[in-house]
Amino acid sequence: SLHNPIVQDSFEPGSTFKIVTMAAALEEGVVRPNDTFHCEDGSYSLAPGVIIHDHEPDGTLTVAGILERSSNIGIVKIAERLGAAGFYRYSRAFGFASRSGITLPGESPGELRPLSDLTRVGLAASSYGYGVSATPLQLASAYSAIANGGTLWEPLLLRDGRKPSRVRRVARPETMRILAELLAGVVERGTGIQAQIPGYRVAGKTGTARRLDPVTRKYSTTSYNASFVGFLPVERPLWTIAVLIEAPKGQYYGAQVAAPVFAKLGRQLLTLRGIAPEAAPGLAARRP
């Protein structure tokens, strides 16, 4: 049978998974968008022999800045405030580590660390998408729950013939509106700037994850997965798009290689639907 990587392949999502940590923390009220965290100038000693690094040597960042700059250290500190039980509960609520129910064969459920393994180090790694595996469809479904105001739906094929089935409410609409704005900030000011589409507001998150060698079980220092997951238009979302590029050659950051693909696909969809910037309700024309 034909192989379908959208549902059969699971991968470590890296920073695209930070939305789970952030959604949980916002919903539980342990952080607010303007809260600040010290990001240790890019190097955080978590435990003996365990140092978390950021791509940029940032000092103090707001919650919004943590997503825009994709700070691992910032999201780890948010996860510590949230706690392991809350992180695990929301990870499951978003549909991770369970099959979506789509009518395609061989769907992978993905994997989460069990709650008993969410030690300080385990929770930290999971909070930014390591030690976690997910299919592209699971990520698209999770971001769709943000876009639609907090409901996880069972995904359907376009010609499936059935009405969509509601799985569960993940978070309140108010929480998801805040998170959608934070993700719009990622595209407008942060790592997702190459996902911009002139005239429309886009929300999403970049991801760059080291690939795990299946033989040595160690992370590669030369091979990565680049991703971008997002939705558009922000105020009245019509589409969620998940882009995963496995082991890109040359440039390898999600911001560099996956975000532009998202923008290209988004532009094509908007053109096909005939949605002009001035005709999109509530949308301000914005240019990069």
Low-pLDDT segments, ≥5 res? 279-288
Following the backbone from N to C, one meets helices and strands in this order, namely HHEEEEHHHHHEEHEEEHH
Structural shape: globular
E-strand count: 9
- Sheet with most strands: 3 strands, antiparallel
Tell me the CATH topology.
Beta-lactamase
Q: Mean of residue pLDDT? A: 93
Give the fraction of residues assigned to helices. Answer: 25-40%
The separation of the N and C termini measures 44 Å
What structural category characterises the helix and strand content? alpha+beta
Question: What would you say this structure looks like, in words?
Answer:
The chain is an alpha+beta fold. The protein has one domain: Beta-lactamase (3-Layer(aba) Sandwich), CATH 3.40.710.10. It has ten helices and nine strands. Strands 7-8-9 form a three-stranded antiparallel β-sheet, with helices on both faces. A two-stranded antiparallel ribbon has the order 1-4. A two-stranded antiparallel ribbon has the order 2-3. Helix 2 packs across helix 4 and helix 2 crosses helix 8. The longest helix is centred in the middle third of the chain and has 17 residues. The protein is globular and about 55 Å long. The relative contact order is 0.15. The C terminus is likely disordered.
